[in-house]
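Q: A reviewer asked whether we had any structural model of the full assembly, not just the individual parts. We don't, so I'm hoping you can provide one. Inputs are below.
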Amino acid sequence: MSPNEWMIAGMGIFVLVCAVAVIFSRSPIYGAFGLVLCFFGMAGLFLAWSSPFLAMIQVLISTGAVVVLFVFVVMLLNLGHGSGGGVAGWVTVLFASGGIWTLSLVLLRALNRSPFYPAPSGAQGAGGLRAFSKLLFTDYLWPFEVLSVFLLAVVVATYVVARPEAGNVARKENR
Amino acid sequence: MDWLDLGLTFVKTLAILLTVVNTVPIMSWVERRGAALIQDRPGPNRVGPLGLIQPIADFVKFIWKEDPTPANVSGVLYTIAPFLSLLPACLVLAALPVGDHLVVMGREVRMQIADLDVGLLYVLAISSLGIYGILFGGWASNNKFSLLGGLRSASQMISYEIPLAIAATGMVLFYGTLNLREIVLWQEGTLLGVLPRWGVVLQPFGFLLFLIAAFAETNRLPFDLPETEAELVAGYHTEYGSMKFATFMMAEYMNLTTISGMMVTLYFGGWHIPWIGDSQLLAWFGGSRNILGLFQFVVFFTKVTAFLFLFVWVRWTVPRFRFDQLMRLAWGRLIPLTLLNLVVSAVVLYLVEGR
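A: Here is a predicted structure for the entire assembly that you could use as a starting point for your response.
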C-alpha cells in the first residue's frame, strides 16, 4: 500500500472508532468530544483524497460551528454530569461496532463505484482550488443548489416533527 | 522530499514556533508594564532591571507550584482542556508566511512552514477550534461560574467568527486567492504611485471591522466576557491552578500573536515595507537572499509587535461591554456592515476592473 492508502486506512479506522464512541458514551459531553474527533478524522480523509478545500470547510463548519452549538445546548441544559464518561456494556459495544464496520465497508464499496470518485481531474491537489471553484459554479451548480434546497426541506421537516402540538401549547397556557 | 527537505522543515517549524512561544513571557511583561504606564503606577519593577526578569520568576513559580485538582471535576476533560486551547494556537502558525524565501545549500526554502493553497481557510478553520478548550474547561470544572464563562465564550466566538470571515472575504475579492503567500506577494509596490499597495489602503473600513472581530475572537477587553473578574470571578479558568492555568494564558497570548500575524498578512503587506520593493532591497543587501530573508522576518514581527501593543493599549483604556450589547454589536451592526463592505467591494471591482 502507498503511504496515502495507509493514511486513508488509518483515518478511516480513527473515524469509525470515534463514531462508535459518540453512540455509546453515556455522557453527552464526551459524545460531543468524540464527534469533534470524528469530524476531524473526516477532514483528514478529505485531505488524503486530495480535496483540501473540502477538508477545511469540514473543520470550519462542522467542527468549528455545529458541534460547538451541540456542546452549547448540552451545557445550557447541564445534562449528564456525574456519569462522567461511562460507556454501555461491552457486549453491546462489540455487536454494534461489528454492525457499523459492515455498513461502512458496504458504503466504501458503493462510493468507490460511484461516478463521483475520484474527483474530476484538475480539481485535485495543490493549485486545484481555482479549478474546483469554477467547477462548483458551472458544472456542479445544479446539484449544489438541489442539495441546499434539500437541506432547507430537512430544516422545515425537523421543525414540523419537533414542534409541540397546537393542543399541548394551548393546554399549557391554560394551566 | 528527501532528508534535507525534512530537516529544513523541522528547523523552520522550530524557529517559527519558538519565536511565537517567546512572545508569551515578553507579552506578560509588556501587559503588566503597559497597564502600569497607562494607570500611572510603577508595575512589576523588582526582579531585574525594569522588572524584565519577572516572566522567568513567574515561570519558575508556575512549574513548582502545587497542581491541585478540585473534587468532582470531570477528570479527563478537565486535564486536557488547557491543551485543547493551546494546540490550535500552535497549529495556526503553520500557514503564516513570515518572509519570502532563503537559499540553503542551493535550495529555495520558503519562510513558511506549509505553503497551503487554502491558507486563509486553514487559519479560520483551525482558530475556530480554540473554543473547545474554553468550553470543555468550563464544563468539566463543575462550577457555575466556569460553566457560565464557557457558555458566554461559545456564543461570543461563534457570533464574531462570521464578521471576521466576511471581512476577510472582502479582501480575497481583491487578491483573487486564498494562498497567504500569494496574498503577501500581491501587496508589493504602490497604488497610483503614491500609497503602498496594502489591504488596509484598499479597505480601511473592512480592516476596522476585522480588528473589532479579532478583539472578540481572542477574548480580549473590551470583549473579555468569558472571564470577567467582577461577574464570573475568572470565568472558565476559575478552577484551574499552576501550570494548567499558565497553559490557558499561553494560549491566549499565542492567539493574540497569530491573529496579529493574520492582520499583518491580510491588511499590512506581510513582510513588505512601504515604497521599497523586494528587488530594490535585494540589490542593497548585495544580492544575498538570506540577509533579505532575515530582514523580512524582522519586518514581519515588528508589525506583529505593533499590533500586540495595540491589544494591550486597548485593554487598559476601554471599559468592558455588557453581554447583550456584545451580541447586538455582532449580529445587529458588524455582520450587516461587513456584508455591505463585501457587496460594495464586489461592485467597485466589477466597475473598475471588470472581473
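A: Points you may want to mention in the reply: Chain B has a mean pLDDT of 84. Chain B has one domain: 68-353.
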